[in-house]
Design brief:
This protein is of the alpha/beta class. It has one domain: Rossmann fold, CATH 3.40.50.410. Helix content is 42%, strand content 19%. It is built from 7 helices and 7 strands; from the N terminus they run H-E-H-H-E-E-H-E-H-E-H-E-H-E. It has a 7-stranded mixed sheet with strand order 3-2-1-4-5-6-7. Helix 2 packs parallel to helix 7. The chain is globular, with a radius of gyration of 16 Å.
Length: 222
């Protein structure tokens, strides 16, 4: 998005923003039932948020997919302009670090636009879902996890790692100050119901104040 487009958008909707980046594993191991369940979950996420008039104007969603490469599937849009994608293109490897780095770059650019246009914003969320582990070199994994933890320590973002069946939970644990969560089966719909409810609570709160999130009923944390 250009600076001019951003100025027009923010002039039309000056509400504070709740930015959320979904980092989605689209490696070959997600083929079949997992990717179908993920697509259904994304549709639920959109429809639930559209029921909340405040969240519709404040929550901004971006989607980054990662397999052998990392790509921006959806740049930031408010929920009223968000169309849940149907993901079908899968790749071989799991370049999760590349996905995280791309998500962090998207956030930096978006926050710069907020500041340029005088738009308040809430602590951003990076929400990664994977059924494997990063296939990048150990040094890359260490560097990316260190960057995430530094951002968390400085309260610049909240990082959530969600492991689908088969995910390396121990490695996911190294990425964040917050413990990862393991999904029960392919419970993507419940996961995205929880995420949409969390976004609604955040968007209705005052920026910077502590918000109690809904209980996790789609898996186990830790």
């Amino acid at each position: 998005m250009s600076a001019l487009e951003g100025s027009v958008e923010f002039a039309e909707n000056p509400e504070p923003r709740v930015p959320c980046v979904l980092l989605l594993d689209t490696s070959f191991s997600m083929a079949g039932a997992p990717i179908a369940s993920l697509n259904a979950g994304l549709a639920t996420f959109r429809s639930n948020l559209l029921e909340d008039p405040v969240a519709t104007k404040r929550v901004e969603v971006a989607i980054v997919t990662f397999n052998s490469t990392a790509e921006v599937l959806q740049d930031f849009v408010t929920v009223d302009n968000f169309e849940a994608p149907v993901i079908s293109q899968l790749g071989g490897a799991t370049c999760m670090c590349a996905g995280v780095e791309k998500g962090l770059s998207l956030l930096q650019q978006r926050k710069a636009l907020y500041r340029q246009n005088g738009i308040a914003y809430y602590q951003p969320w990076l929400f990664v879902i994977t059924d494997g582990q990063p296939t990048e070199p150990a040094g890359t994994i260490r560097a990316t996890s260190a960057r995430v933890k530094d951002e968390e320590t400085k309260k610049k973002l909240a990082f959530f790692a969600i492991g689908v069946e088969g995910a390396n939970m121990e490695l996911l644990r190294s990425f964040s100050l917050r413990p990862p969560a393991k999904m029960a089966g392919l419970n993507f719909t419940s996961l995205f119901v929880w995420l949409s409810a969390s976004m609604q609570r955040l968007s209705a709160s005052k920026a910077g104040e502590k918000t109690n999130l809904p209980p996790v009923d789609w898996g186990t944390v830790g």
